[in-house]
Design goal:
By secondary structure, the chain is an alpha+beta fold. It is built from three helices and eight strands, in the order ββααββββββα. Strands 1, 2, 3, 4, 5, 6, 7 and 8 form an eight-stranded mixed β-sheet that branches. It is globular, with a radius of gyration of 17 Å. The chain starts with 12 loop residues before the first strand and ends in an 18-residue tail after the last helix.
Length: 157
């Protein structure tokens, strides 16, 4: 997720003098404001049509306390942008009043400087839903008028 290019309020920037960067930081509400469904679908569809544009690796899964998992998912593009999504899946959290899934995303520019860090919980949910929508559009029979979606967690009604 690249920033819109506008000036960010000073409190939304982390200044890193050691690496000469100005990293934009977005909280969940800012991600919600900037992440549109139409754009998400369009960008994911383009990514699937150009599989060589992005380089990915298998996600890394580490065990977490109380039966949970920690995940990292890296991706880079041909221009040199590199991002990593980190996800904590902690199924026992809801019983303690905490979210069961939390995600964070960090993006580096082609020079290796941190450019963006953001809450990625909504990003994760929206990407999952968008990939499901794209798959359904491609795999459904041409005259299909109904779709059954079965799931749990943040995407379930």
């Amino acid at each position: 997720m690249k920033s819109s290019g506008g000036q960010a309020p000073e409190e939304a920037l982390a200044v890193c003098p050691a690496v000469r960067c100005r990293m934009r930081i977005l909280d969940a509400s800012e991600v919600r404001e900037r992440l549109g469904w139409a754009e998400t679908l369009e960008l994911l569809e383009a990514a699937f049509e150009e599989p060589d544009r992005f380089r990915t690796a298998d996600r890394v899964v580490l065990p977490a306390p109380r039966g949970g998992s920690y995940l990292t998912m890296p991706c880079g593009d041909a221009e040199g942008w590199f991002g990593v999504k980190q996800v904590a899946v902690l199924p026992s959290n809801p019983s303690r009043g905490l979210p069961g899934v939390r995600a964070w995303y960090t993006l580096f520019d082609p020079d290796g400087a941190p450019a963006l860090a953001c809450d990625a919980t909504l990003l994760t949910r929206q990407r999952t839903a968008a990939v499901s929508a794209l798959a359904a559009a491609r795999l459904a029979r041409p005259r299909a008028s109904q779709l059954l979606v079965v799931g749990t967690g943040g995407l379930a009604p």
